[in-house]
Input
Amino acid sequence: MATFQQQIAQHAPTAAEIKQRRWIYVPYDRFTDRTGPLTEQPANETGIVIVESTAKALRRPYHKKKLVVLISNMRHFALEQAAKGVSVLYHASPDSHGTALLALQHKRKLPPLTCMKPAERELRLDLASALERGLQIDFVADTTWASASEDFTTVYGSYEAGKTYVMDRFYRRMRQQTGILMKSGRPVGGKFSFDAENRNAYRGEVPVPRFPVFPPDAITHEVMGFVEQTYAHHFGTTAGFNLPCTQAEADAFWKFFLAHALEHFGRFEDAMRDDEVQLFHSKTSVLLNLGRLLASDLIRDVEKLALEGEVPMASAEGFIRQLLGWREFMRHVHEQTDGYRLLAGHVPQEERKVQQEVSPDSTPVAAAAYHPGKTDPYAGATPSALGARLPLPAVYWGTQSGLHCVDSVVAQVVQEGWSHHITRLMVLSNLATLCGFSPRELTDWFWFAYVDAYDWVVEPNVLGMATYADGGLTATKPYVSGAAYIHRMSNFCGHCQYDPKQSSGDGSCPFTALYWTFLERNEERLRGNFRLQMPYTTLRRKRPEEMVQLRARAREAIEHLQSFDRPAYGAESDAATSDSAPPEERSPPRLRHHPAPPGR
Ligand SMILES: Cc1cc2nc3c(=O)[nH]c(=O)nc-3n(C[C@H](O)[C@H](O)[C@H](O)COP(=O)(O)OP(=O)(O)OC[C@H]3O[C@@H](n4cnc5c(N)ncnc54)[C@H](O)[C@@H]3O)c2cc1C
Ligand code: SF4
Output
């Protein structure tokens, strides 16, 4: 951190600046001065506190590229603010954010801090604990979101057991409320959703644009070295890192998408390829989730092009639906269910009791206070409506399974920490749901393996949309398919040892047998689902001999996947014991060895 430290040290505040300025705590995912408290006074009256916490980074074996993009954006944001005249207190600490802030406030005699209400439940817990220990901090609304909690509860009411949320209702309300793509109270183009036009495979119809890449500068290089040393045991690699790390790079990345990819986004949104991983997707999630790009800006940019007739409605509406619809919807679902902990039977009683004791009037942050020893507040909820509980197998860590679709998407995730929506849903999660792998383990895997993963978005996407673990709270049916869908939407099957047209016997694609046996296994639970009537009718028509073969093929496939030893991941957080040492000089964490997952 020598280069960064030298530069930022020049902007450290004097005692007078500490007294006279308004001090704002900027969390690790809100690097913006385009909205929120940083916009409310001139730079020369503003001070910001930023904490680089090793404890948080060690909580999971986060992909090394995720740590690089986060820490490098953090350091660049600090320097960008300093260049504007903001005083910057940049604090690298082995502790959690809350504990580090508390110590810093005490040591530097900082006045009460202002902070936008944290997006991550984990950070809310951490700060609530520090609040109880004396941290002085005021929470204000997080204006980076495009909707408020009331927008969600007005549509669905408060969460209660047995509730189902259909995203479309929320999306329509947001369109009407914001007037986005609306004219005289009616949707532009005559309908709210062009979803039916978003389902083409890609067969080279138009060239795929080459997105700009951003070679690491000196600061990013330092971060890469630090990550390789301190988090050596983590998932993935820093090699080839080229994501945006400054505001200017983030803006350039977005403008490129608008000019060169948006036009074809809608048409090829669901397409999958092994040779074109990004296709026409924006890859903006990582920047949105860090606060570098704001959803409302992106929505306005896309709407403008649509109204000017520059891009087809299927693309513009499709993109806006992802941001104004799905992204906002998911974070509300997470908040309303307290990260799925409120689902019937999923909240440990002690934890509920603790929450009530802490705050009968239940302000969002205080209600989530962390009480070490009573219960582990960071333990994720474990819904599994379909009773899935097999351990997640080694193929998710890169062991070759022979299933080309799975192997190529996993290889991409190991390399990049990213793959697009349909590969997450219809390859990686589809396989897990069909086989009955634990939804919690899959969620944790997505959480550490993807550069854009944070609790508010990864938990509802995996536990809700992708695995039906929430029993239909967020999706009207499980998103599962056999080989036919993957074959139709991708070029994977053409490069695979298995035949997507065969469902049993040697060389048959396991997905199809897994699909039918999944439906059979879960018939009691799912047969009443109106969206599954056709598949159940087909299942019932299958001859008993065919079912015997399908069961054998499915069993063989699951046994094969479970037969590999899983690599060990997990850090003992002894990496740093003193915050006087810069992160680069702390000893790396020890790798804890896990036994291989048990067989079935
Ligand atoms: C199993 C699974 C896990 C996922 N985990 C994450 C995650 O950890 N973090 C994350 O940001 N997204 C997650 N998603 C949603 C979605 O896959 C990603 O947001 C998207 O693929 C990111 O790539 P992109 O920026 O190119 O998206 P684009 O296809 O270009 O879409 C534009 C934007 O819409 C938003 N968006 C689209 N779909 C969703 C959604 N379902 N939930 C929230 N935002 C959405 C994203 O911000 C995205 O940047 C997950 C989806 C699935 C099925
Ligand atoms: S044949 Fe089956 S396993 Fe192979 S790529 Fe296609 S769907 Fe995947």
